[in-house]
Amino acid sequence: MTGGGVPEHKLSEHDWLLIEALGRTRTGRSEVPTVVADGPKVKDWASLLRVRRELHAAAPQRIVEVVQSCAETGEFVAHRESGLVVVGVPIRCAFDEVHGVQVWAGPDDVRLPERPRVAAWDWQADTELAHHGPGLEELVFARAPEDVRVIRTPPEAFGRMVRFEGRIDYFEMVGTLDGRHQSAVDMIGDDDLVRSFQMVTRADPVARRIRALMREFTDAVPAQPDVDMTMLRAVSQRADEGVGFIWLSSGLIYEWTRIPTPPLDRWGIERPTVHPDDLADFRTACADLAEERAADAAARHLRLRVRFTDTDWIPVRAELLPVLPAESGHGLIRVWRELAN
Fold first, then answer.
1. Which residues lie closer than 8 Å to 41 by C-beta, 6 or more apart?
2. Contact, 153 vs 269, CB < 8 A?
3. How many CA atoms lie within 13 A of 65 on its CB side?
4. What domains are there in the chain, each with its CATH number?
5. pTM for this one?
6. pLDDT tens profile 212-241
């Protein structure tokens, strides 16, 4: 836009806004949307009534109206008034809900800048499965269209994370299914390139779901690998068993650093059913280890039976260990098939 007669300093005045519409009250009503990004700048759940006031006295109200229209209809909206243009682009999730709106507001003689890439996802607590919205996998994983799937297990996503600044706070929200959280995350794509994202999440305790937006800002924030996680992943590659990270409070295995060997390798992309007679012991062991939260907490050894789609029960040995720092609430799980005597 520098060649179109618009001074460079004005570009930042007319950046795209990202407005989240993720919140739901306990009665199911939508919470008031907030601004979470202004161009490359991350915003801390800012009010819509304080943005773009310098453009026009009516700008904040028109932005609110455009966001409401996009959220209700799921359609692109453009409003023009007295030299002011407000454009809204809805961001849909896999359930055809609007999780956010990208808004541009500026004078009608300024050309719209390129719109940042944003996509949505949901995670369902009861199934422990993620549902990826339109364009999410292409954006985050640089995935070819023929490889795109809507439903994924947590390890399929977390296994691609190079950095997750808010891992502990995020899982606290997941465990309680309450609150909201923003983080910077770095993801490695199918093309082996690392991209940075702003991840915006809110919990819905009624639907028992985490709703989220992912906004790419690779050019704004250089990728910073998590050294501790990188070392743990590297060490686990030497193991003969499957090794994964587990959130102890919920028993959620969210990443496999080493996929279990067959026939348990399906655990990497499928959530198995744990035998009802074994599930209580598994959850108790996780809860006990989470309660201790001590560096010298003893490992827990378990026998489980798991079943994948179209398989019989498979006997499994499992070992649970805390991850330091112990107060993080995270653990390591090792699993291998138990062979008959």
1. none
2. yes
3. 12
4. 1-225 (3.30.450.20), 227-337 (3.30.450.20)
5. 0.85
6. 999 998 655 555 555 555 556 655 555 678
